[in-house]
Specification:
By secondary structure, the chain is of the alpha/beta class. The chain contains 8 helices and 9 strands. The two termini are 18 Å apart. It binds guanosine-5'-diphosphate and magnesium ion. The site of magnesium ion has 4 residues, from α1.
């Protein structure tokens, strides 16, 4: 476990947000989007890992489907992600034949039993640890709420795996503009991460969409952290 419990600091490998690229144009124009299929269990079927992969995670209701719709600007995406029964699977999409987008099941749904609530972990963890082509994960938090116990488990897991992580604070249109910076700071403090490394996002106004797209494109241009760790060893 790579978490220092004294400072509660998650030693996440964060992508460098210090100098966000100034893009005059859309950094990720979606020309092609194809649903590749679902993965339902940790040792179950998954599409061939031909392209680099970016995963998306968050508590259920955090705004993941809305964010993905905004990111890919496609109605087809919404149709798949809202199909009943698909919500407890990992759904894979090929984007521009450039990368695979892995939509992880939302965790921590409040209205189910404690036992069933723990069911998300083996599938998500199994996928994250086994995917040979994983390049990074986009981890979502609702800007209005402090991280839950499930969020903390998720962050512990990401720190342990060492996967590069982009943290997105969703629904920023729901807090007063004057309070956004304070909420981002509070979230960063509770997770022990750098506040500047979080991307504020709103599916309503579109704020953060291009910055997120640029961060993903940037991650895709780098080699897998697994390869780098092997070379260092
Ligand atoms: N105001 C606002 N509402 C949002 C935003 N993103 C999602 N929502 C709402 O939050 C609820 C859950 O969103 P959804 O995308 O389905 O969350 P998911 O369960 O994580 O896929 C829905 O009622 C959305 O309309 C946002 O950026 N701003
Ligand atoms: Mg959803």
């Amino acid at each position: 476990m790579r978490r220092d419990d004294q400072s509660r600091r998650y030693l996440l490998t964060m992508t460098d947000r210090a100098a966000p690229p100034q893009q005059a144009t859309d950094p990720l124009v979606i020309r092609h989007l194809e649903f590749l299929g679902p993965m339902a269990t940790a040792d179950g079927w998954r599409p061939a890992a031909e392209l680099p992969e970016i995963a998306f995670a968050g508590r259920s209701n955090v705004g993941k489907s809305s964010l993905l719709n905004k990111l890919v600007r496609r109605k087809a995406f919404a149709r798949v992600s809202n199909t009943p029964g698909r919500t407890r699977e990992i759904n894979f999409f090929a984007v521009n034949k450039l990368f695979t987008l892995a939509d992880l099941p939302g965790y921590g749904y409040a209205r189910i039993s404690k036992g069933r609530r723990a069911e998300w972990k083996p599938l998500i963890e199994g996928f994250l640890r086994a995917s040979p082509q994983l390049r990074g994960i986009v981890q979502l938090l609702d800007v209005r709420h402090d991280p839950t116990a499930d969020d903390e488990q998720m962050f512990d897991m990401l720190a342990d795996i060492g996967v590069p992580t982009i943290v997105v604070a969703t629904k920023v249109d729901k807090v007063k503009p004057s309070q956004v910076a304070a909420r981002l700071h509070a979230l960063a403090v509770s997770l022990g991460i750098e506040g500047e490394q979080m991307i504020p996002f709103s599916a309503v106004t579109g704020e953060g969409r291009d910055e997120l797209a640029a961060a993903i494109v940037d991650l895709l241009s780098q080699p897998s952290w697994r390869t780098v760790e092997e070379e260092d060893a």
